[in-house]
Amino acid sequence: MDQLLIDQNGFSLSQWDFLVRIAVAIGIGAVIGLERQFSAMKENSTGFSGVRTFIILVLLGFTGGIFYHLLAPWVYGALLLGVIILNAASYWITAKKGDSGLTTEITSLFAFILGTLVINGLIEISLIVTVILVVVLSSKFRIKAIVGKITPEELYDFLLFVTLALLVLPFLPDETYGYPPYDVVNPREIGWVVILTSGLGLAGHILTKFLGANRGILLSGIVGGLVSSTAVTWIFSKKSQDAPSLSAQCATAILAASSIMFVRVLIWTFIFNQALFLRLALPITLVFVSAVGVTFFLYQQKKSQEITDTDLPLKKPLDLKSALVFGIIYTLIILLVTYAHENLGQSGTLISSAIAGISDIDAITISASKLAGFKLDLSTAALAVLIASVSNTLVKMGIGIYAGSPALRRHLYLGYGVMFATALFSLIAFL
Q: What Pfam families does the record point to (predicted)?
C-alpha cells in the first residue's frame, strides 16, 4: 500500500494516499451535492444540482490536479475553463426560465477546486472550506428571514459601526498624552474601548431581537447580561412586585445576568492584559461557577413556571452617544486610579476602584487592565478588579432588595450570599 503511484519533484502519491484522498473527495462531493439536491427539490429548481453531479465535479478537480503534475498546467487550466463554460451555459438556460441565482454555479466551481486541494494533500483546508460552504448554503431561508426583519436604522448603525472600526480607529494616534505620571491617555486605546463596548451592545441588541420574547428565563438573563445586568435587575425586580408568585423565576434572570458580568470581566482582561487575565482567571472563575450553580438551582426549582411575557426593551442598535460617554468615563477612571495610586498608594487605588465599580464594572476593568504592569503592579490591579466586581454586585443586590418582592429578596439573599461567600474566599486566597 506504500508503493508510489506518482513520484515527481514536488509531488508524490502512494497507493494509500490515493485511496484516502479519493475517499475524502467523494465525501466532499456527496455532502455538497446532498445539500444542493435537497435545496433544489424544496424550491422546484430546474438547474443542475445533485449528489452525482457534485461528486463528478470534485473528482474532475481531483483528476485535473493529477494532470497538472503529470501532463502540463495548461491541461488543468483547460478543465477549469470547461467547468466555467458549462456553468455559464447552465446559468444562461436557468436565467431564461426566471431563475437568476448564481449559488449553484459558484458552488460547482468550489467543488472543482476542492477536489484539486484534496489531491494535493490539503485535506484539512478542504474539509474546513466544505463545512463553511455547506453551512452557508443550508442557511439560505434563515438568512432571508433575518434580513427581512432588519430595519433601516439597524442596517445604518451596522454600517456606521463597520466604518468606525475600519476607517476611523486605525487612524487614531497610538501614543500617550499628558504630563508624567498622568501620561496614560491614548486615543487609539480609547477608540478600541468605544468600539468594543459599542460592538458588545450591538451584539446584545441582535440577540435580544432575534431570539424573541419567548426565549425563556435563563436566556433572558444571559442575553440581558451582555447588554446591562443592572437593567435586567431593575426590570425583573419590578416584575416580581407585579407577580410575586414568579419571584423565583425573576431571581433566576437577575442572577444569570450577574453571572455574565464575571464573563465580561474575563473577556476584557484577556483582550487588554493577558497577564492580568491569568491572575484573575481562578478567582473570577470560582465566583462565576458559584453564581451559575445557584442560578441553575433556582431555575430547576421553578422550571415549569416560565416567564414568557417579559421582554427586555430594545434600545438603539448602536448607541454611539453612550459609547462615547463610556469612553469619557473610562478616561476619567484611568486618571482617577492613576492619581489615587500616585498620591494615596494601594489603599487609594482600591477605594477608587470600589467607587468606580458602583456605576460600571467594564470601565474599571479595562482601566485596571491598561494600567497593570505600567502604573500598577499586577497584584494591585487584580485586587482592584475583584473589589470593583464585588462593589457592582452589591449595587445590583441593593436594587433587587429595594424594588423586588419579599420573596425575591429571599432568593437574592441566597444567590448573592453564595456569590459573596465565594468572592470572600477568593479574596482571602488571593491576598
A: DUF4010, MgtC
pLDDT single digits (tens) 289-340:
999 999 888 888 765 555 544 555 555 666 677 777 777 877 887 777 777 7
Cα distance between the two ends of the chain:
63
Q: Coil, strand or helix: which one is 14?
A: strand
| Element housing 6 (H / E) | strand 4-8
Secondary structure of 90-113 in the HEC alphabet?
HHHHHHHCCCCCCHHHHHHHHHHH
pLDDT (tens digit, 9 = 90+) per residue, 91-135? 787 777 766 667 888 888 999 999 999 998 888 999 999 999 888
The rounded radius of gyration (Å) of the Cα atoms in the chain is 29
In the chain, DSSP finds a helix count (H) and a strand count (E) of: 16, 2
* Cα–Cα distance, 51 to 43 (Å, whole number): 16
DSSP state of 372: B
Phi and psi, residue 214, nearest 5° = -100, 35
> CB of 63 within 8 A of CB of 157?
no
Rounded Cα–Cα distance for residues 115 and 57 (Å): 8
> Where do the structural domains in the chain lie, given as residue ranges?
4-144, 150-430
Cα gap 350→149, rounded to integer Å? 46
Q: Express each pLDDT in 326-383 by its tens digit.
A: 778 778 877 777 777 777 777 888 888 888 887 778 888 888 888 887 778 888 888 8
3-state class (DSSP) for residue 245: helix
At residue 25's C-alpha, the angle toward residues 15 and 23, to 5°, is: 50
| Alpha helix positions (H), 139-246 | 140-149, 152-163, 187-211, 217-227, 229-242
Q: Which of 256, 276, 255, 254 is nearest to 265 (CA)?
A: 276
